[in-house]
Amino acid sequence: MSSPIDLHLHSTASDGTLDPRALVRHAHDCGVRTLALTDHDTTAGVESAAAEATLLGMNFIAGIELSADWRGRCIHVLGLAIDPAAAGLERGVQRLAGERERRAVEIARRLDAAGAPGTESLRRIREQTSLPTRTHFARLLSELGAARSMAEAFDRYLGQGCPAAVRSDWPALAEAVSWILDAGGIAVLAHPLRYKFSAGARRELAREFKTLGGAAAEVVCGGASPAQIEQAASLVLRTGLAGSVGSDFHDPRIPWNRPGRLAKLPVAVQPVWASAAFPVAPAERA
Hints:
The protein is α/β, with parallel strands linked by helices.
């Protein structure tokens, strides 16, 4: 499975392991020709990624992945084709950066209290990025020997109900979507099947998202099975959303989740890139 379109990728500007230029080159080597950089709650890598994409003759989409609250749960919303300099989005990004810093300090404190290297992890994270995430902590806990893997770090320390689980004050879903729309962007519900909702609640989320101005949801995600793609396709068809595709790539050491390693978007689903608001019109159908 290979797609020339990948609209969900992460760099070292948030919790990926490749810097923005290296990420674009890696995506190009994987056969991707239209890509979006969608780092968590930041657009810091967009300028350099766009420059590299231009050198390689690729279609580049400026993006972001915003954290938002819906009924007390964290939801991720992609903003595609955004203006990173839009005032409202910039204010929102600054607010999210402050919240992530507050959460990181508290996570480190709680890890220390649990006998894990929280302060040391945070020190190393700050050497890597200005935007600390739980993925950074999980990676460092694994590297420092406090957990055998990132998955175990979440299971033992960072996941819900664990010693270093810290609740975050994310903006409401409506507010996050408004930041994207005000920046001229297209709002896409990221990986809708990853949220632990009932099918009914997931449909309510998708319908509300559309009412707020959301345009699409990810139908084809990195690692999704045919059954999951069919389920996500049913969700967008029932709620009137378009479909998007994205690997959610973070790390080239994870071979099953390389850029563009995606199934084709089901024929019945309207591609988000067919929208008049999308800045390029890829000839290929992912």
